[in-house]
Amino acid sequence: MSAVKITCVIVDDEPMALKLVESYVKKTPFLDLKKKCSSAIEALEFIKEETVDLLFLDIQMPDLTGLEFSKMLPKETRVIFTTAFDQYALEGFKVEALDYLLKPFDYAEFLSAANKASTWFSMVKGKQESIVSKEKEFLFVKSEYKQLRIKLADVLYFEGLKDYIKIYLKDEPKPILTLMSLKLIEEELPNTQFLRVHRSFIVSLNNVEVIERSQIVINKQRITVSEQYKPKFLEFINNNSL
After folding, report:
1. Residue 1 belongs to some domain of the structure
2. Digits of tens for pLDDT over the chain (242 positions)?
3. Does residue 208 sit within a domain?
4. N or C, which end of the chain is more exposed by having fewer CB within 10 Å?
5. Which residues make beta-bridge pairs with 132?
């Protein structure tokens, strides 16, 4: 089985360390580098707009330390700490870091830590409580201690709320609430039927009623298409316009 692709960000205030870890990431086929940041504050701003699986995170940084920053991360984002000070190891594992690399470290040590991350993400993906059928016609989601079978054709849109998702359905006055990240459900949905248009919304393309400037109307609900997701949305419009 091939390794799960892991999106990652490097955070370090030392330019040489940043460059070294970047070279290691680029050598590792299952790592997909999204950004390198020279401060935790810069990384925090990026993560507000982009879902990231893994951070290679320095601990000692000005303004906001790596340990402080790690406590602000979304639940699905994991950390491998990189630091020159071994006294932080215990604190690093207390915040459930996947590993702890003590500077200076070589590529073999880096790869060992990256492989731990790959194993962890593979296990998580395999244990997801919501299972999408191979035919992509329905999914099971856990809600209020029950597994509910939901037809994809009945879904209007998904709304992400931190660790939860609201699933809005046709002819249902109330959405279904389930514990899951929007990123995980996005990976399982057929991209011919569903499109992410905002960090908090995935819409059913079959149920889009009106497109007005940068807004979609579905069942009287207006959803804004954010700049990050506009290119794919415009491609959808162009492919389906007369």
Report:
1. no
2. 456 789 999 999 999 999 999 999 999 999 999 999 999 999 998 988 888 999 999 988 888 888 888 888 887 889 999 988 765 545 544 557 888 898 999 999 999 999 999 988 887 765 544 444 444 688 888 888 788 889 999 999 999 987 789 999 998 889 999 988 888 888 888 878 899 999 999 999 888 888 887 889 998 899 999 988 888 888 877 777 65
3. yes
4. C
5. 139
Domain boundary pick from 101, 126, 151: 126
- Give the domain extent around 42: 6-126
How far is the C-alpha of 51 from the C-alpha of 40, rounded, in Å? 16
Helix (H) or strand (E) holding 116: helix 107-126
The answer to whether 46 touches 68, Cβ cutoff 8 Å, is no
SS (H, E, C) 79-94: EEEEECCHHHHHHHHH
Same domain, 68 and 161: no
Same domain, yes or no: 145 and 211: yes
Q: How many domains does the chain have?
A: 2
The reply to whether 229 and 190 lie within a common domain is: yes
Using CB atoms within 10 Å of the CB of residue 154, give its burial: 0 to 12 exposed, 13 to 18 middle, 19+ buried: middle
Residues 121, 136 within the same domain? no
**Amino acid letter, residue 171:** D
If one counts every other C-beta atom within 10 angstroms of the C-beta of residue 221, the result is 14
Q: How far apart are CA 188 and CA 197, in angstroms?
A: 16
